[in-house]
Predict the 3D structure of the following.
Amino acid sequence: MDKMSDKRKYKRIEKPYITRFRIKPDEIQNMAPTSWDMVAANNLGAGGVFFNSSKDFEEGTTLDLKIGFSTSMPLIKCDGIVIRVKKHPHTFIFGVATAFTEIDEHEKEMIKKTSEENYIIEKLDFSNMLTALSLAS
């Protein structure tokens, strides 16, 4: 396991998920809602999502998020706070790490269960299984 995996509270799903986001309107400052942007998030867990964007967010920015987690289910609608931004060298692209601040508990559990199942599948050594099956026949 790498060092980052050891620090994480939740397992991650490293598959692309269509994600829409916008800066959450600020009711205190009467900020108007911004338009929705769409990206392919490439790292999703029950605690947050990581995606690449052309926008350079400030840490602490609150986002409205809509994540297309499954084609058989409605979008996951939640709020997140930007906890880390890293500019990719020689590009105008930024890696954005976002922690969920408001998410339905059922949806959070669904992400958690799926990420744990994916983790188990990724750790299986299929070549050893195939060898064992061929020896058994």
Notes: The chain has a mean pLDDT of 84. Residues 17 and 69 are 6 Å apart (CA to CA). Helices lie at 3-7, 105-123, 126-136. Strands lie at 12-13, 17-23, 37-41, 43-45, 48-53, 62-67, 76-87, 94-102.
